[in-house]
Amino acid sequence: MGDGAVAEVVLGLPKEYGYVALVLVGYCFLNFWMGFQVGKARKKYNVFYPTLYAVESENKDAKLFNCVQRGHQNSLELMPVFFVLMILGGLRHPLICAALGSLYILSRFFYFTGYATGDPQKRLAIGKYGFLALLGLMICTISFGINLIRA
């Protein structure tokens, strides 16, 4: 019995679910990288812990730092939604969810780098497509839920 068959028998998961797991780890790496960028921005713009956001009246570079921080914070805010949709939708549609998850990660990268320029509008040039990926993941998760109810 091959490893894929073992995963399906023991865990009840299709072997393609491995792609879902790898995409989730990819997002973790992106999150670590964004956090590192916030740390660099803290040093560059003199925003010290535990300050979450810089105040413009106290720091001339507040907007620049806040844009870096906000790009990461927004990604953290959506991370639980992304993970739940990937994990659940991927049980029925692992390859579709892995592809949508990869698109989401790519869009989040561009969302963050656009935001980090200091011009919040630049976050949407490519970053806006992440919402289409989330919509696709929602559809996959709805399909999973309906399939469970009908089974």
Automatic annotation (TrEMBL):
Recorded metabolic or biological pathway in which this protein acts: Lipid metabolism; leukotriene C4 biosynthesis; Lipid metabolism; arachidonate metabolism
Gene3D superfamilies: Membrane associated eicosanoid/glutathione metabolism-like domain (1.20.120.550)
InterPro entries: MAPEG (IPR050997), MAPEG-like_dom_sf (IPR023352), Membr-assoc_MAPEG (IPR001129)
Keyword Zinc carried by entry: no
Catalytic activity: leukotriene C4 = leukotriene A4 + glutathione; 15-deoxy-Delta(12,14)-prostaglandin J2 + glutathione = 15-deoxy-Delta(12,14)-prostaglandin J2-S-(R)-glutathione
Residues spanning the membrane: 17-36, 81-106, 126-149
Enzyme class: lyase
GO biological process, alphabetically ordered: leukotriene metabolic process; lipid metabolic process
Keyword entries, A-Z: Lipid metabolism, Lipoprotein, Lyase, Membrane, Mitochondrion, Mitochondrion outer membrane, Oxidoreductase, Palmitate, Transferase, Transmembrane, Transmembrane helix
Listed Pfam families: MAPEG
Membrane topology of the entry: Multi-pass membrane protein
Annotated localization: Mitochondrion outer membrane
E.C. numbers: 4.4.1.20
Any one cellular-component term (Gene Ontology): nuclear envelope
A GO molecular-function descriptor: glutathione peroxidase activity
PANTHER family in UniProt: MICROSOMAL GLUTATHIONE S-TRANSFERASE (PTHR10250)
Name this polypeptide is given: Glutathione S-transferase 3, mitochondrial
Organism: Rhizophora mucronata (Asiatic mangrove)
